[in-house]
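Collaborator request, handled under Task 6.
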Amino acid sequence: MNIFKKTILTVLASLLFIIGNVSAEKIKIGTEGAYPPWNSKDASGNLIGFEVELAQELCAIMKYECTIVEQDWDGMIPALVMRKFDAIMAGMSITAERQKTITFSQGYADEVASLAVMKGSSLEGMDTPEGINLSLGGSDVKKALKTLTSALAGKTVCTQTGTIHQNFLESGDVGSVNVRTYKTQDEVNLDLTSGRCDVALAAAVAFTDYADKSGKAVVLVGPTFSGGAFGNGVGVGIRQASDSAIGKRDAKILKDFNKAINKARKQGIISKLAIKHFGFDASM
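Structure tokens returned to the collaborator:
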């Protein structure tokens, strides 16, 4: 009898395992794999970084079966809309412009931007506030933008194409700037260090990570930027929901990501990963 009961229990456990796996939501998450420390690839070509590990943690919380796939930055949103994957985790800031096409989860990390130059540049030591939030406005923001307008006049400013950083440089907030764009942040870093850029603009951690790993004398200058054209933190990009069955699935994915982000935040998972990859707590 004991052997019979044990056999029955084993069979039931196996059936529950199979049913659980069959019913698990399967999704694909797109990331760039070229924006360290947010996301990048190791020497073997495996996707790594803060968002890759965070995606794995969120999927475990949601009990989703997730596959993380690589996608060029400039095709990220079109690929999501065309259903090449179901979500974006690629250092993508939440902006009003992007929300016209896709929706976002709540933010999971802050991404302050900064200008960077090579050590010894004439732009070092600019007299600006330590950080400015464009959404707040006020005299400090106006003064900082005026200083930057003067400092960047005649300079070549390099940045990655299709980013909040390019949008800011072309917004007119710092005058008419000579902007040179690149497909990847790696290309921005290489041209900055080779002297083809006078200054570059990106997430502050993108420059500090590059300087630490390459040993190049890249230094941050001016204020850090947030708000306004720089968005409201980084979130998971999801297709906009609709009344169709597929649209309702997208709505469920968004709801599940929001719940998982809340849980990961409360459990300290996001803080731990941010400190590991950024050197400070960038969680929201």
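The cover message to the collaborator said: "The chain has nine helices and 13 strands. Confidence is low (pLDDT under 50) at residues 6-21. Please let us know whether this matches your experimental observations."
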